[in-house]
Amino acid sequence: MDSQEPWNLENDTLKRSSKEIPHRPTPHIMSTSLLRKKSDLAIVSKVRCRLLRQVLANLQEVLLGTKLSLLFPAIPLAIIAEHYNFGRPWIFALSLLGLTPLAERVSFLTEQIASYTGPTVGGLLNATCGNATELIIALFALRQKKIDVLKYSLLGSILSNLLLVLGTSLFSGGLANMRKEQKYDRKQADVNALLLLLGLLCHMLPLMFRYSASSGALTADPILQLSRVSSIIMLIAYVAYLFFQLKTHRQLFEAQEEQGAVDDVNSQEEAVVGFWSGFAWLAGMTAFIALLSEYVVGTIESASKSWGMSVNFISIILLPIVGNAAEHAAAIIFALKNKLDITLGVVLGSATQISMFVIPLNVIVAWIMGIHMDLDFNLLETGSLALSIIITTFTLQDGTSHYMKGLVLLLCYIVMAACFFVLEKPLDQPSDLNLAA
Amino acid sequence: MASQEPWNLENGNLKGSSKEIRHVRTVHNMSSSSLRKKSDRSLVSKVPCRLLRQFLANLQEVILGTKLSVLFPAIPLAIIAECYNFGRPWIFGLSLLGLTPLAERVSFLTEQIAYYTGPTVGGLLNATCGNATELIIALFALYQKKVDVVKYSLLGSILSNLLLVLGTSLFCGGLANLKKEQKYERKQADVNSLLLLLGLLCHMLPLMFRYAVSPSTLTADPTLQLSRASSIVMLITYAAYIFFQLKTHRQLFEAQEEDGDDAGSEEEAVLGFWSAFAWLAGMTAIIALLSEYVVGTIEAASDSWGISVSFISIILLPIVGNAAEHAGAVIFAFKNKLDITLGIALGSATQIAMFVVPLNVIVAWIMGTRMDLDFNLLETGSLALAILITAFTLQDGTSHYMKGLILLLCYFVIGACFFVLRTPLNQPNAFNLGVQSSSGFSSA
Question: Residue A16 pairs with which residues in a beta bridge?
Fold first, then answer.
């Protein structure tokens, strides 16, 4: 399983040469490729036994193939901390650190598997697994019946994508490319904006419903029914979006190709990990993510008390920063290279996926489990979501960019973070804002 | 009064050749023309008496000239049901069915009259009568002091135009024209979006006013005064919009012309001026009758069918009232003539928001009924999001099926919301803020 040619970090055009199927990488794939390192197979090739050599090469590729692998030791440390009861805030922090490289590796492995299955299934895989970390954290929170953590971590992920990641990318990209014109295709941004607005509608209707009714007791069931119906509709919209993106209007979403791609002929990448090997690694990594997510969700209150911040703040601000770290770095790097289509693809695609797929999926799973989860995310959070969607949509609607746009988005995020920082509501209080009480 | 050339359904360019007046077809005219049928004159021309022949030709043209005329029998059935007390839900259902072809015929007759009056007055006529059904239903509800039915049916009509009609049109048009690029003139959409946003402001201010003031302050009267002043402003805006559309910036609103079919089709009116006028008066009277039945039996139908009055007012009534326009908009989207589709959907929404709603407030003022522009949180919120989403959808000048699908799904979500909302109509809408609102469900 020796690789022919390691990933060439400088070459942004990745064309597969396996069989005749042209595998055009989606923005998500290309984003994480920037965090890869060249695997130096010199040491491994000295090992005599062929099987051992293959295993070690595999190991080296998967575990050491990223710059984030510095954080890998946090995983065993977190497990040790859990067993020896070091202190729950420590478990929380170590688990968070350990999740970061795992998220990146999962997308790497998804990409490897995608190279065997062809572009459409690969795109689907990416669309589903792109936010694996957030999904797993959410499912664990659901299982432990911490509905608020669930709601707010997903909401925070959308806010983080739309404002923080996009803001820093546009800001850095704008500063780096001050003399050049920065353009992108706005059609892609438009479709994502529309989906986010549909999601916003589905969140705002239960909220307004609750406020407009005369008594809180009468609205609980209708809101739940409405949320469940809306979730089904959102999933339908997401499936249609995948169909739109992968079948009928593919050309809108294809990653920008580099001019003068003389490097095309030279760099032929093949998958560096075999199909079943990749699958096995994926399963293993997902198991680790599940373990660390369980620690995170279980220790979040202790960390909150110990560090003096509200659980809302940790859920909305801290968790998503960790979960999105890899995509964040990649988005900035592509913006610096003035490839805004890819940046937007990463950011908006991730936000849309969480809004239209992960959240409704959680509502449906809660329905199956008999847990009472609706789409009513409370006034402050829903209002922040609404404003961030509107601000981002306005920012992206003219097809050009400069650093001021990025700075404004970034400052919006800082304001929202400050808002949730000063909000010190304990987690167990019923969250209906009855102003008459 | 035999027509020279029947309506040519395939020809998108319809230039009247009567005298020298170029009768440029407004989008509304063109929409309902797609539901017309060719009149077969052979049967009628065999009748010997000339007057009778004319009368029968007239009848045939008016009553049978549309594909919707299958629903005409519902009208006498509804009247019979009312007289013999069949059961109020039946009266409601039959009246609804009967209103659908009547609405379409009224627009046809308006178009006929417009031939004789020239383009400007014709445009004005269309602008006023385009939503005749909604206007008449609203006036009857006002007369019967069912202010909520008024508010919600008009709101539902705007929502239906912006999300349902536009959504299905863009969706079907996108699927049918998958390979082609679908463009439209966004300036028209922009003006309509601006007017809708002004209307939204006029609705949101009374609502926020009610929430913002402390409980001890009475807000009913100031809200009413604000609503009446806003209505006058909205009517002024609408008049300016008509002036903009028909006089100074006509070219933005002209229907898309198809190349190469100009010379072939010359239409004349198929009905005489006074004849059309008489038919129009008659049809309007029947619409009034059926509307009275609808408004009177709405609660009975709601109890009998188990759905809330809000749902019937916001979802069912507008679907019926807009049926003809809906079909026309979808057909034109199939032919990739999105300017016409947008003209129909947005024009109708603007007309209701800027003309019918304020007109009702003024009429209520004259009648001494207390109607304001405060349409309650959930409904106003839905309206705000619908306008926002539609404005975003239309602002880049192109279209694909995904846009239509999202608008349609938004409508389904809003429909589901009002379906599960089971607040009885008479309950005071007391808010948690401690404000005992008297203007929420005003049935003064």
Answer: A269
